[in-house]
Design goal:
Length: 312
């Protein structure tokens, strides 16, 4: 029986637990620092089980010993972006939270795969890899799946077609410098460039880039959680079921796309061991340039974070 620990029982963490149980993927332990909250949400989700027809156990706790021997540890602990706050404003607070979460969980689940959700995503994934000392294929971040889903949803709405048939790939960092690739976008194999004008596509690319901020502005408090939760569940499914799906994930580049020593969104094949391989696409010069700029910005933030953590 697979066991997934979700650290952080806030909006994203609780939604991750909900979708993992609904999809009948694993038993879920939800951990948070707030007393009673993970217990209450897990109890509520447990009471939904007879209605939804799964037998997954959901357990809320404030005690890391309950996370022992997890197959996957999902990290959502941290503070969410507020209106007007850039992702990078989150850096210092979330870095110290993620650092402490990794230290607590790795000693109890040294065989686990770590899936990071806390923002700024690519930097937090790098930090998780550093602190855990795990091999890079066992540490990855969720961003590209979400950014691609947003792009797909906007294209489906624009065309009036089923969202299921739209396939897209968004690479790069999870931020203003993300790299949507319309060239690789299709409706069941029909290139999107044949169905939408360049101007329309550019507008949808822009909306995708601002996808998180649009929701933050509407919610007023907190940030997106349904699509992020569903994105994590999809990645958890690919790993636990060993499906070898090709998904854009924050992975550790070791020369691919000319990038080195950086966690950034690239197409990756997911299997039971985590990241089985990174697939190198033949990108055009402008696409490669955008990817490099994105990676450079992540690297700068990693440096800032390293200094902040030293002085904290
Ligand atoms: N250990 C465990 N849980 C923690 C810790 C910690 N050290 N510090 C904070 N938390 C918990 C909070 O108590 C809170 O319940 O993390 C939870 C975060 O939940 P929310 O504030 O609801 O934030 P959420 O919307 O879930 O976003 C979480 O995911 O998408 C990203 O940008 C988002 O970084 C943010 C993260």
């Amino acid at each position: 029986m697979a066991k997934v620990t979700v650290v952080g029982a806030g909006f994203v963490g609780a939604t991750v637990a909900q979708y993992i149980a609904d999809k009948d993927l694993a038993d879920v332990v939800v951990v948070d620092v707030i007393e009673g909250m993970p217990q209450g949400k897990s109890l509520d989700l447990t009471q939904a089980a007879p209605l939804l027809g799964h037998d997954r156990r959901l357990f809320g706790t404030n005690d890391y010993s309950d996370t022992k021997n997890s197959d996957i540890v999902v990290i959502t602990a941290g503070i969410a972006r507020k209106p007007g706050m850039s992702r990078d404003d989150l850096l210092k607070t979330n870095a110290s939270i993620v650092q402490s979460v990794v230290k607590e969980t790795i000693k109890l689940s040294s065989e686990a795969i770590f899936l990071v959700v806390t923002n700024p995503l690519d930097v937090m994934t790098y930090l998780t890899w550093k602190i855990s000392r795990l091999p890079a294929p066992r540490v990855l971040g969720m961003a590209g799946v979400l950014d691609s889903a947003r792009f797909q949803a906007f294209i489906a709405a624009e065309l009036g077609f089923s969202a299921k048939d739209i396939r897209c790939m968004v690479l790069g960092g999870h931020g203003d410098l993300m790299v949507p690739l319309p060239r690789y976008c299709s409706v069941n194999g029909v290139p999107i460039t044949e169905l939408l004008s360049k101007d329309k596509l550019d507008a949808l690319v822009k909306r995708t880039r601002d996808g998180g901020a649009e929701i933050v502005a509407l919610l007023k408090a907190g940030s997106a959680f349904y699509a992020p939760g569903a994105s994590v569940a999809l990645m958890v499914e690919a790993i636990l079921k060993d499906t070898h799906r090709l998904l854009p994930c924050a992975v550790y580049a070791q020369g691919e796309y000319g990038l080195k020593d950086v966690y950034v969104g690239l197409p990756a094949v997911l299997s039971r061991g985590g990241v089985e391989k990174i697939v190198e696409l033949k990108l055009h010069d402008d696409e490669l340039g955008a990817l490099k700029r994105s990676a450079d910005s992540i690297r700068e933030n990693v440096e800032v974070m390293t200094k902040l953590l030293v002085t904290a």
